[in-house]
Amino acid sequence: MIAERLKEIRMELPPDVKLVAVSKFKPVEDILEAYEAGQRAFAESRPQELAAKAEVLPNDIEWHFIGHLQTNKIKLILPYVNLIQSVDSIHLLEELDRQASVLDRTVDCLLEVHISGEESKQGFAPSEIAQVVEECRRFRHINIKGFMGMASLSGDENLIHSEFKALRQLADRFGNAGLGIVSMGMTSDYRIAVQEGTNLVRIGTAIFGNRI
User: Model's pTM, two decimal places?
Assistant: First the structure.
């Protein structure tokens, strides 16, 4: 079933849109089924869960972190993570840079942008992004690869279109700086995100089913 869902989603996505399977709260067996169907990029939102799964799953899996990351949990994911999509403060960037230097590695990150009107969501204000990108030049162990955003949890498709469009337009301002990843779109709204120019979608429920 997981393999069939993956196939259907891949057929629907344009070739230039990367699919990241959100495996949070899902057992190792489900991830292995997706892996055997050819999926290699997976996302987790809890540091302990990512670390535990990375220890027992194939080492060619590309792990993404998509949850709110506390600085005291960085050490749990740094040995394994390929891309941290949810960087939402300069303080977090500073600590990531420091801890990555200890491991003598460079970590790829996306800047999370607060594109919705919902206060519960994290991220930099769009008006802050130019200054944040400039500040990131001082970090030696972080590569900013682009941006991530979450649209409002709403049935208003026009609103979701406008929020994703705003993130795409913001990202386009920095395309020449190598910040080419635009991560937007989940199970509920990835089709809208594709229409608005995403090149990375984070899909969980449509692949693994509803959380029990």
Answer: 0.96
